[in-house]
Design a protein that fits this description.
This protein has 321 residues and is of the alpha+beta class. It contains eleven helices and 13 strands. The termini are far apart.
Amino acid sequence: MNYIVIDLEWNQCPKGKEAEDIHLPFEIIEIGAVKLNSCRKTVAEFHSVIKPQVYHWIHNKTREIIHLDYSHLKEGTLFPDAARQFLQWCGEDYQFCSWGNQDLMELQRNLKYYHLESLLPGPMEYYDVQKLFSLNFEDGKSRKSLEYAIDFLELPKTEYFHQALADARYAAAILKQIEEDCILRNFSIDVYQNPKSKKEEIHIFYDSYEKFISREFDSKEDAIADREVSSTHCPLCHKPAKKKIRWFSVNARRYFSVSVCSEHGHIKGKVRMKKTDEGKFYVEKTLSLIDEKDAKRILEKKELLCAKRRLHRKSIYIDGD
Ligand SMILES: [Zn+2]
């Protein structure tokens, strides 16, 4: 199995968000990638500059960051050709790696724009090097910049950052420093192409937590009412866990709950409501073990929210009186 470390540069609407094409907010203008073999030795590189078809000028913010100008892009390859060449170059047996979780999503969104999504079926497993860096060298939760990680590991800085191939090389250099065990146990999953049916729903078990990705629903209410979505169990022994704090929303997209496993203690449930490009909803749920202090903190959060909402209702009532 090869690792394909990918990095993309993209452009956005030069006239601002109001004028953008909602089906393609970020148009890919450069693909860079490094292929590592199973021993994580670099065996090949890929680079392509892409001729824009949607935004015919580089957004000022983008121009400051990337090292490309528009005349350079005009000489580039059309995205459908570049994408086909790239995926052919990737080969048969590979796993994508990227710094952060955005690149693969934008790659799929750009493919979809050109009706080429079948070239890269999803949901897709990949390795998020930014997350792996944090797990291997820091607290597992922080997300640092590529340059921070290069400095932290005292790796040579020989090229400008924010060029697709240079950034792919940097991310590959970082990936080489991470323990193999840490990599293999901590794959991520991209669900831009989210599960559609019950059969496609995803359960992933990590060491101390588990993740569930639901099929799609017409509304948020339908999603959170689903039996599988609302159920909680212990990420260690997988037995059903009794709810101590029922699901409550902290905002329009996030819900929490606390349950108890008689053997392993408190379990935090977290639900993130996701909206698809087509306006449907699906859920990413994580269940993780927490200590009693954390459980208490969640209870306090819930009580504070309830009090605030009561107050809000009261003030509406008074105003309307
Ligand atoms: Zn348990």
